């Protein structure tokens, strides 16, 4: 029997900032380590989270070395729908008071902003203490993190972006950037190659449409390689992406669910299951395919829905290295157990 809480971000960062629903910005106070940089990994992860929360994500990254070179008192700092990173590394002691004044200005505005992430990334203990004290007073919606287990973080990166294999020579941040890029390039290539043969149900002009179509093509290719008989509705029926006649399972409905702008991923998965069963009958078998980032980051919520089912629904994601569909629970077991 699989335990319900397979994904535990606290083992990597000491805090879980994923399993949180918020209408306002979330501040992440990240303790930097010069020997083990992880800010690029964190940025890419938060982008994936924001895509689920609001449907899109912008980035703002400001890096200060030694002194502050930006006047926060005269410029609005809007984190709505953004991943904003303020890096404070190698800061001189006499800049701490200046940072305190700046942070107060930022914190006073956060209540009026929409969902987003503000990462304060610093290796200065004085800055970290001051920041925590100010946030406690002006904006307590924050969490503190640090990188605890780099090897586990590498496993998480691999699973989040298609089971990409790490290279021994690359840093954690380098691996995260390469894995994320390779994953999306792979899906983009599928969309480019197959769209003339299998017309997409909607224009491929958003990240959601490209990812949805790429996952659909990936699933079809995997199933064809197994010799399955595949039916696709030429009318583009949104109730399913494909139907297979599986020798072991009989008729199976294939449904891709990207979870972009879903806000509550588990609710979206449950609605998908209910819609499919309403269309095909309560005894229908369904395989729901979820993009890797969402499948891993929201695994606990998603699998809690799966645990309530009666075995007729499988929750799957991608292994692009071996070109196979893999149950989400199996992938989490490989990481954390």
CATH C-level of the largest domain? Alpha Beta
Q: Secondary-structure element order, as H and E?
A: HEHEEHEHEHHHEEEHEHHEEH
Tell me the overall shape.
elongated
Low-confidence stretches: none
The average pLDDT score comes to: 87
Offer a quick outline of the entry:
With 337 residues, this protein is α/β, with parallel strands linked by helices. The protein has eleven helices and eleven strands.
Task: Tell me what you see in this structure.
This protein is an alpha/beta fold. The chain has two domains: 10-148, Rossmann fold; 172-336, Trna Endonuclease, Chain: A, domain 1, CATH 3.40.1350.10. Helix content is 42%, strand content 19%. Strands 6-7-8-9-10-11 form a six-stranded mixed sheet. It has a five-stranded parallel sheet with strand order 2-3-4-1-5, sandwiched between helices. α3 (96-110) links the parallel β3 (82-89) and β4. α5 (150-160) packs parallel to α6, α5 packs antiparallel against α11 and α6 crosses α7. The model has no long low-confidence stretch (mean pLDDT 87).
SSE order and pairing:
Layout lengths: L9 H4 L12 E6 L7 H16 L3 E8 L16 E8 L6 H15 L6 E6 L2 H14 L3 E5 L3 H11 L11 H23 L12 H19 L3 E3 L10 E5 L3 E7 L8 H16 L4 E5 L2 H6 L1 H9 L5 E7 L4 E4 H9 L1
Parallel strand pairs: 1-4, 1-5, 2-3, 3-4, 8-9, 9-10
Antiparallel strand pairs: 6-7, 7-8, 10-11
Helix pairs in contact: 2-6, 3-4, 5-6, 5-11, 6-7, 8-10
């Amino acid at each position: 029997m699989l335990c319900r809480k397979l994904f535990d971000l606290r083992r990597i960062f000491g805090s879980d900032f994923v399993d949180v629903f918020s209408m306002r910005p979330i501040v992440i106070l990240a303790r930097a380590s010069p020997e083990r940089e992880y800010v690029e990994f964190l940025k890419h992860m938060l982008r994936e989270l924001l895509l689920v929360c609001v449907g899109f994500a912008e980035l703002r990254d400001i890096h200060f070395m030694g002194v502050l070179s930006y006047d926060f008192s005269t410029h609005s700092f809007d984190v709505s729908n953004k991943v904003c990173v303020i890096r404070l590394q190698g800061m001189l002691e006499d800049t701490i008071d200046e940072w305190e004044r700046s942070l107060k200005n930022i914190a006073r505005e956060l209540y009026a902003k929409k969902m987003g992430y503000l990462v304060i990334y610093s290796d200065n203990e004085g800055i970290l203490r001051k920041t925590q004290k100010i946030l406690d007073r002006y904006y307590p919606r924050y969490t503190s993190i640090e990188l605890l287990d780099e090897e586990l973080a590498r496993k998480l990166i691999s699973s989040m972006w298609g089971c990409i294999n790490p290279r021994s020579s690359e840093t954690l941040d380098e691996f995260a950037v390469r894995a994320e890029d390779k994953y999306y390039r792979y899906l983009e290539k599928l969309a480019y190659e197959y769209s003339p043969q299998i017309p997409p149900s909607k224009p491929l002009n958003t990240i959601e449409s490209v990812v949805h179509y790429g996952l659909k093509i990936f699933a079809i290719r995997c199933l064809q390689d197994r010799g399955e008989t595949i039916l696709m509705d030429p009318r583009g029926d949104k109730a399913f992406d494909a139907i297979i006649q599986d020798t072991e399972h009989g008729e199976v409905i294939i449904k891709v669910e990207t979870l972009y702008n879903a806000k509550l991923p588990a609710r979206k998965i449950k609605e998908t299951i209910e819609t499919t069963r309403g269309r095909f009958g309560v005894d229908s078998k369904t395989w729901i395919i979820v993009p890797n980032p969402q499948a891993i980051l929201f695994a606990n919520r998603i699998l809690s829905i799966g645990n309530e089912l009666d075995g007729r629904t499988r929750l799957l994601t991608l292994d692009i290295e071996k070109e196979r569909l893999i149950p989400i629970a199996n992938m989490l077991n490989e990481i954390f157990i």
